[in-house]
Amino acid sequence: MTVKTRRATESDAKALAELLLAVHGIHVRGNPDVYRELSRDAAEAIVLGKLAAGERVRVAELDNEIAGYCAATIQTAPAIPLLQPRRSLYLNEVVVRPQSRKRGVGRALLEDLQAFARREGVHDIELDVASFNPEARAFFAAFGFQVLRERMGMSADS
Predict the structure, then answer these.
(1) Which residue in 120, 110, 128, 11 sits closest to 69, CA to CA?
(2) Which long-range contacts (CB under 8 A, 24 or more apart) does 51-58 make?
(3) Domain N-acetyltransferase spans what residues (predicted)?
(4) Which of 4, 43, 76, 96 has most Cβ atoms within 10 angstroms of its Cβ?
(5) Are 129 and 136 in contact (CB under 8 A)?
(6) Which DSSP category does 149 fall into?
(7) Are the CB atoms for 39 and 146 separated by under 8 Å?
(8) DSSP letters for 83-117
(9) Against a cut of 0.85, is the pTM above it?
């Protein structure tokens, strides 16, 4: 059972929308004051928008079925005196079907992105991970991601 990665196409949009709905559901449950429910049509439109915008969307297949995907964009630091000039690859999302976890799917997607980043001369790969998602935090840490900064929040009514 080898994991294969490939470029996502429009014909993958429905399957990727289902995966997006699954990961988004974690966010809705974790922080319903910020995230709202998403319809299948809206999720599919988001996926198609990513493809149309040229976002790097990669699919992982296991046993010839889509087992996961990731989406990333190259970002360039603003040219201001405060920041070093650098390019980073921002990982917008990575999703693996629950039944495909612990089978190398997530690792294959991240290795694919890492190879792309090297080819493009990108300095680093960054992502945001919700504090209410310990499984994702552990996965990224095991791959080598480190906490670079923390963002805190509070209610204005506090």
Answers:
(1) 110
(2) 51/8, 51/9, 51/10, 51/13, 55/92, 56/89, 56/113, 56/116, 57/7, 57/8, 57/16, 58/5, 58/6, 58/7, 58/8, 58/109, 58/112, 58/113
(3) 3-158
(4) 96
(5) yes
(6) -
(7) no
(8) S---EEEEEEEEEE-GGGTTTTHHHHHHHHHHHHH
(9) yes
Residue type at 101?
Answer: R
Domains and CATH numbers, the chain: 3-143 (3.40.630.30)
Amino acid at 151: R
Choose among 135, 153, 96, 104: nearest CA to 3: 104
The token pair at 17 is 């929308």
What does 10-44 look like in DSSP terms, one character per residue? Answer: GGGHHHHHHHHHHHHHHHHHH-TTT-----HHHHH
